[in-house]
Amino acid sequence: MKVFLEEAREELKRADHIIYVSLKYTRTVDVIKNLIERLISCLDFVIEKLLDSAVEKKLIAEKPVNLGLKCNAVKKAYGEMFAEIVALYVQLRKIGRAEYKKSSEYRRHVTMTATTDEGTFMIDIDKSKELYFKVRQYVEDVEKFLGGGEEEES
User: Fold this and answer.
1) Residue 153: is its pLDDT beyond 70?
2) Which of the residues 39, 71, 109, 138 has the least number of beta carbons within 10 Å of its own beta carbon?
3) CA atoms within 13 A on the CB side of 50
4) pTM for this one?
C-alpha cells in the first residue's frame, strides 16, 4: 500500500500547474483564488487521511463530520505534531470565504487582499508560491508519517 494521499497529490499537481503556467501568463486574482481553493482541497484530503489513520490506530473513537470537530480530533489524536497543518487549513478556508479586493491585475505584482476576522491578508505571486511549497511539504511529511507507521506494523 504505497499510495497514501493520492487525491492530495492530484490536487498538488493542479496547484503546480496554476503556479507555473496559469499564474505566470494570466496574472489575475481569480487564478490566485483558484490556487487557494486547490490548496484547501489538498489539505482537506490530508486531514481526512489523518483522521482515517487515527481511527484505525484507535487514537479516536470515530471520525467527526463537522470541520471544527475534525480539526480538534487531529490535534487530540496527534498532539502538536500536525497543529501547523490544521492552523494553515483553517486560515486558508477563512481566506477562501472572505471578501477580497483585486489590485495590479495583469502585472507582476497582482495581489488579492482578503479581509477576515483575523486581519487582512495580501496574497501575491510570491506569497502564493510560499503557500504552495508549504502545503507540498506538509503532504510529504504526512505521507512519510503514515508510511512509516504502516510499515512498522507489517
Assistant:
1) no
2) 109
3) 29
4) 0.91
